[in-house]
Amino acid sequence: MFCTNCGAKIKPGTRFCPQCGADLSAMAAADETVTGEAPGGAQDLTQPMPPAHASWEPRQASNEDAGQDEPSSQDELQATSPQAMAGGAVAPREVPQAPARPKAGSLRPDPERGGRKVALIALGVLALCAAAVAGVILGVMPMLNANHKEPSIVRTDDSSSSSGTKKITLGGSDEDDAGSSSSEEHLGFKGVTRASASSTLPTDQYASYGAQNLIDGNVTTCWAEAASGLGIGESATLSGDERQTFSAFSIANGYQKSESLYYKNPRATRLGVSVDGKKVMDVDLPDNEFGSITRFELPEPVDGNSITFTIEAATPGSKYEDTSISEITVS
């Protein structure tokens, strides 16, 4: 058995030609229509037929064809003409497609040009951001400068007496300085010479507990109030020989004669501070360990004749009920 398409020998039962891949079952059905005994003892048509293109010979290139890059119109017609197949079937040949050529006037993409375009866009965005930041800074800084005020400081004027202080305000206009020069100057601290209290624990066989102990420079002595309970509302007042300026103070809280007495007697935990009867501030005293001294500064220097410390809260002692303060140093 032979393939009617290419003439290759085929084994019985094979469906597709191993040489050209033709469908043998379709060809066999076509052959059945032409097989059998021909009239008058004609030749048997079941014999294999030569391939339809067996008689075709390739066209020999001539000298005229040498150097031609493209096939002639006759070659293109022959290449695309259908080939005869057995049984009258015709198999068209595939025509190779020429590569597509770019249209006239079209531009090829330039990678370098695209990169330059991206870089220019990025530079433009950065320039806009920088301009926006500069505009914000230029708009905000004048407002900040207009609202900015320098803090006031207190310093000692060495050219004057040792007790003289001045409150000097930095910044502001000359008019402000001229208008406030008289009100900002203070008398200076002159010193404390007297102490009094709203109540005092009576002297016993061990010690005296008067308010004068607050300014004697000795932390082993104390002022102890004599009111019932923890002495809330009791006060001690310190004054000098003349009107002066109060700026800060230090307190040795509790009865610091010994550690045992420190914890046996109540300690003040909150004091109200007044100058000439006008309240200036409240201070919270930490219940520190025995021997501690705490310093406070007034919100601003205040001129007056006296400074008063009022007990507003206290922590109980383990044995006694008389709140005690060992020392108060005013400056």
UniProtKB/TrEMBL annotation:
Domain Zinc-ribbon: from-to ranges: 2-24
Region Disordered, annotated ranges: 31-113, 152-186
Record-linked Gene3D superfamilies: Galactose-binding domain-like (2.60.120.260)
Biased composition (Polar residues): 60-83
Keywords, alphabetical: Membrane, Transmembrane, Transmembrane helix
Transmembrane found in the keyword field: yes
Transmembrane segments: 118-144
One Pfam family recorded for the sequence: NADase_transloc
SUPFAM superfamilies documented for this protein: Galactose-binding domain-like
This protein's record includes keyword Phosphoprotein: no
Domain NAD glycohydrolase translocation F5/8 type C as annotated: residue spans: 191-330
Protein name from the UniProt record: F5/8 type C domain-containing protein
Origin species: Parafannyhessea umbonata
Taxonomy of the source species: Bacteria, Bacillati, Actinomycetota, Coriobacteriia, Coriobacteriales
